[in-house]
Amino acid sequence: MSIESPPSWPVVDPPPFLPAPRRRWPFALFVAVVLALAGAGAAYAWLNPGLFIPPAGRNAAEADAGANDSAVMTDLLAAQQKTADDLGAIDRTIADQQEQLKAIVSQLAELSSKIDALKSPAPQPPVAPSPFPGPTVARPSASVPPVAPAPAARVVPKQKKPPRAATPTGPISVGGAPLNAPPDAPVR
Predict the structure, then answer these.
(1) What is the gyration radius of the CA atoms in the chain, in angstroms?
(2) What is the C-alpha separation between 136 and 2, in angstroms, rounded?
(3) Distance between CA atoms of 28 and 11, rounded to whole angstroms?
(4) Angle 174-180-185 from CA coordinates, rounded to 5°
(5) pLDDT tens digits for range 44-56
(6) pTM for the whole structure
(7) Domain boundaries defined on the chain
(8) Closest Cα to residue 171, out of 156, 152, 186?
(9) Are 149 and 127 in contact (CB under 8 A)?
(10) In sequence order, what DSSP letters do the residues of 13-66 get, joined into one string?
(11) Which is nearest to 48 in space by CA: 56, 38, 40?
(12) Per-residue pLDDT tens over the stretch 106-125
């Protein structure tokens, strides 16, 4: 046998190792469109939750709301009445406090006028003899001179301090710089 192939056989190229590339872009486009539509549908359902809740639950809630309205109204009226009572009590308290404040202000004005009267020395009215005679008292003999009434107390004002002697001042340095004043310059 010989190793050579017979010449009658046709010469065929061997098949390639890699298959021919397929066109995948239509499939990728289809998947992208499906995902976009699914996302849009999910967003719409998220923003409108009433699509999946049956309306029967809402009707039952509306029927209960009619029954609750009367209870809520009574509660609101009671709260309104309580608030009105509280406001009335606060108004009375404020009126009482204003009356007390007026009384205190009048007392304070009265006290300040009394203090002013005590601070300023008022002239003493002369002592007038009483119009009715009192009990008779034995008068001492004529050899004893009559005793004069005690003089009224005089308020002596405090002495003022003598004015301080003016100290002579010379040129003044501002900012710490030395002054160039001649030694024989007159002091101001």
Answers:
(1) 60
(2) 191
(3) 41
(4) 110
(5) 988 887 777 766 5
(6) 0.30
(7) 27-119
(8) 186
(9) yes
(10) PPPPSSPPPP--HHHHHHHHHHHHHHHHHHHHHHH-GGGTS-HHHHHHHHHHHH
(11) 40
(12) 999 999 999 998 888 756 66
